[in-house]
Amino acid sequence: MSETSGAHARLMDGIYRRQRLIYDATRKYFLFGRDHLIEHLSPAPGMSVLEVACGTGRNLDLIGRRYPDARLYGFDISSEMLISARAKLGERAELAQGDATDFAPGEMFSVGGFDRIVLSYGISMIPDWQAAITEAVRHLSPEGALYIVDFGDQARLPGWFKSGLRAWLAKFHVSPRDSLDTFLSDQGWKVERTLLYRGYAVFAVIQR
Questions:
Q1: Per-residue CA distances from 190 to 79, 137, 142 (Å)
Q2: Cα–Cα distance between 178 and 151 in angstroms, integer?
Q3: What is residue 13's predicted lDDT score, i.e. its pLDDT?
Q4: By C-alpha distance, which of 181, 96, 109, 178 is closest to 139?
Q5: What is the DSSP letter of 112?
Q6: pTM, whole model, 2 decimals?
Q7: CA distance 165 to 70
Q8: Which among 1, 47, 111, 188 is least surrounded, fewest beta carbons within 10 Å?
C-alpha cells in the first residue's frame, strides 16, 4: 500500500479493532438500504460479485444466502474488519486486504473483472471516494454494474435531523457525499439513481 493508504488502514483498524465486535448489531439501526441493494443485485448463476470495503462480511453473507450460485469476493483496507469477515464467511468467499482507490483483481483473486460490484456505505468513509467509484467501474465486466448505497443528502428530512445526524457521523470519520450526483453525471456512465427514506440514503446502479 502507499503511505496514504497505510495511514488510512491504521485509522480504520483503530476505529474497528473493538467496534467490529458489535458492528453488525448496531449498524442495522442506521445503515438503511443495504438489504434494498441486495434485493436488486440479481446476479445470474455463476456471476462474480465483489464487495469493495466489505467490512465484517455482513452483506456478502446475505448475498451468498440469497444467490447461492454467485461467486463471492471481497476486500477491505482494515485487517481488523477482515478478521470478522473471514470468521463469518469461511470458504464461501475469497477475501483480501486492499485499497478501494487502487486494486488489482488479477493479483488479489486471479479474476479479470466482476459482473456485480457493491459499495455499501463505503464512499462516506473513503477520503478519495471519487477514485474509489472510478476504480470500481474500471473493473466491471463488459455487461457488469456497480451498486452503491450510502447516506443521501437528507434534504426531505427536518433540518435538525440532518444536522444532528451529520455531527454524530463525523465522530466516526463518516462524511455523506452531497456531490455524488454531480460526480456521476459528469462521467458519461449510465446511472440509475433512487432516493430512499426521504433522502436519508441514496441507491445508485452504474454501468459503463
A1: 34, 11, 13
A2: 9
A3: 67
A4: 109
A5: S
A6: 0.92
A7: 36
A8: 188
